[in-house]
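Researcher: Quick test of sequence recovery. Tokens follow.
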């Protein structure tokens, strides 16, 4: 089996690898089995927490882990205690991304809008790409995180107008030069899980354009033998709706400090 393939992937081990967790340095709560690991190298995020149906774990930067280890000695050290301690120590707000993954057997292709042309984008589409960006808010662009230089990029056109765009890159695929987890695709390594983002022109939302674009991208990822992943905040119900409509299944929640904390 291709080691990068999603087939038979242990998602917990994949997350721990992506977060550079040191399996030899952890604090385990004896009552719940919740484990907090020390990060081997520092990252921009002080803390990552992942909750799945099989339980939860956390990965902490070195100094944060050392302080938590001292705090947890001889006392309860489960997830609620870690969250409360971290927020009291830092005043940070933990941002939650709901996680959705797609298996090939669950994929549901949508009906495309009439007259839609959905295709892969290239640098020649930069003008149409920029025109769509200009029509969207900064919050929409930040939440969707679709970039023309990502590994796979698709667009849905009506006539010559780009109505929606979607892109993907290998998520947590190795470490960057500074040792931080490569969650933005900058490390350039292929990996088993590819993160999908999508943005739809405001006046075209609710008409199937974003769904058609995300579907073409998800299909291309599945054809590579990889797992498509969508991260959607609770404040983005439309993103969640697209994921569920295409056959993505909830697979957990990722908590990390909000940018700037």
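Model:
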């Amino acid at each position: 089996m291709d080691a990068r393939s999603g087939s038979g992937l242990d998602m917990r081990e994949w997350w721990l690898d992506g977060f550079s967790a040191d399996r030899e340095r952890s604090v385990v709560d004896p009552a719940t089995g919740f484990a907090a690991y020390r990060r081997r190298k520092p990252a921009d995020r002080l803390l990552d927490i992942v909750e799945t149906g099989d339980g939860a774990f956390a990965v902490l930067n070195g100094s944060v882990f050392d302080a938590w280890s001292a705090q947890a000695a001889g006392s309860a050290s489960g997830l609620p205690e870690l969250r409360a301690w971290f927020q009291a120590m830092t005043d940070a707000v933990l941002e939650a991304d709901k996680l959705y993954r797609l298996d090939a057997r669950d994929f549901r292709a949508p009906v495309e809008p009439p007259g839609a042309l959905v295709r892969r984008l290239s640098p020649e589409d930069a003008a149409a790409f920029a025109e769509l960006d200009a029509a969207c808010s900064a919050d929409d662009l930040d939440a969707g995180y679709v970039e023309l230089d990502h590994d796979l990029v698709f667009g849905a056109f009506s006539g010559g107008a780009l109505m929606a765009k979607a892109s993907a890159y290998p998520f947590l695929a190795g470490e960057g030069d500074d040792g931080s987890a490569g969650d933005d695709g900058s490390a350039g390594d292929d990996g088993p899980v590819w993160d999908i983002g999508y943005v739809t022109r405001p006046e075209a939302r609710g008409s199937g354009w974003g769904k058609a674009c995300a579907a073409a991208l998800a299909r291309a990822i599945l054809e590579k033998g990889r797992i498509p992943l969508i991260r959607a905040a609770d404040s983005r119900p439309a993103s969640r709706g697209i994921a569920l409509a295409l056959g993505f299944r909830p697979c957990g929640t990722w908590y990390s400090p909000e940018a700037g904390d």
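The longest helix spans residues 209-223.
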